[in-house]
Amino acid sequence: MKQKNYYIIDFDSTFTQVEALDELVRISLKDNPKREAVYKKIEDFTNQAMNGTMSFSESLAARVKLLEADKSHLKKLVVHLKKKVSRSFSRNAAFFKKHADEVLIVSGGFKEFITPVVKKFHIKKENIYANTFVFDAAGKIIGYDDQNPLSKEGGKVILIRDLNLQGELYGIGDGYSDFQLRESGLIKKFFAYTENISRKSVTAKADHVTPSFDEFLYLNKLPGSISYPKNRIHCLVMGAVPEKDLQPLVQEGFTLVYEQDADEKALQQASMLLTTPDVVLDPRKLKKATRLKAIGVVGKIKAGIPLPLCTEMGIVVFGNARATLQPAQRMIDFINKGAISDSANFPRLQLPAVNNTHRIIHIHKNVPGVIAQVNLLLARHLINISAQFLMTNETAGYAIIDIDKNYDKQLLKELKKIEHTIKTRVLY
């Protein structure tokens, strides 16, 4: 019988982008003239505990003492935290619904704010393990239950040992208390979660460093909202690209590689290239960049970008001389949805959003019969086509095919072998 897997997930700076107690003190001390000094103390106590330089119990006691919060502040905190769920957790809500019995939230935070935040993700109340506050008659926080194992140093280890879960345990978190589970031998693997913060004292000891929940799902061969983690998609930056033009790529979670810091293989390893009009690409080097899918030029596209070669290689080129969207955003739309509107070298094609289907992109030479071969292959695999779009120019054909999610992965290998195919890829 196959062993059950359990996923032990931290809350602060993992499930959410922030440390909840830090946010609570900002809410409760909003009108306090000494608030900045208190904020700093709270953050210092938090970081010391997360880095393992202060015991968790000492840090927790010190932070709660500084809160000066009540139930009304907690309500405001919950509203705030619901907007601060980590992006990659939000887009993988379906995973939590499917694995409701196997997901445990284990946190040194407090149930009063954790439970209402994770509720919409179908995480069961009985699978939420956290501290609880103690209130006075007026609803002010005056302490916490110090008999709860999670209020103590090594509390997560104590709790998981007592639960005695039968199966393979995987830990996901950003702090030292999460690593302690791996150190104790109670979990199979520890994934240091760095989407929101990266602590060297933790990442150095992790089995894997995972910049997003997408990466965790990918590594463990679990279905996710996207087929390939965005942090694994590299964008090479060449020339003096302004910071504001890079921000969309950073916010989306792609990995930026700067030319001045890169080795000679950086172009070959890149999926995207963002550059300035003065940069001249060497066609010999470009021909070796077989992973490259899109080029964005911050400004007018000039002769330094060999458009015919890009088209021949299936590389979509975007500039922003007349377009309303930044080239970075249009590259993102291309990677996420296959959108090529306003490209400099491919036919114009407006696309609807992907909705509960896989989207296959097939770029091919504009010769007769290619789409017929594609459709024959789909028919042989008994694939139901939800939608199909095709536009061509004198050189290339760009086909979008939305299909049901259940299909034989061999299909993609066979699509690549169709004569005159330039590039093909699948989107979720």
From TrEMBL:
Annotated organism of origin: Niabella pedocola
Q: What is its EC number?
A: 3.1.3.3
Q: Which PROSITE patterns match?
A: ACT
Its pathway is: Amino-acid biosynthesis; L-serine biosynthesis; L-serine from 3-phospho-D-glycerate: step 3/3
**InterPro entries attached here?**
ACT-like_dom_sf, ACT_dom, AHAS_small-like_ACT, HAD-like_SerB, HAD-like_sf, HAD_sf
Its lineage opens with:
Bacteria, Pseudomonadati, Bacteroidota, Chitinophagia, Chitinophagales
Output the superkingdom of the source species. Answer: Bacteria
Cofactor(s) in the UniProt record? Mg(2+)
Name assigned to this protein: phosphoserine phosphatase
Keywords annotated in UniProt: Amino-acid biosynthesis, Hydrolase, Magnesium, Metal-binding, Serine biosynthesis
Stretches assigned to coiled coil: none
Listed under catalytic activity are: O-phospho-D-serine + H2O = D-serine + phosphate; O-phospho-L-serine + H2O = L-serine + phosphate
Residue limits of the ACT domain?
359-428
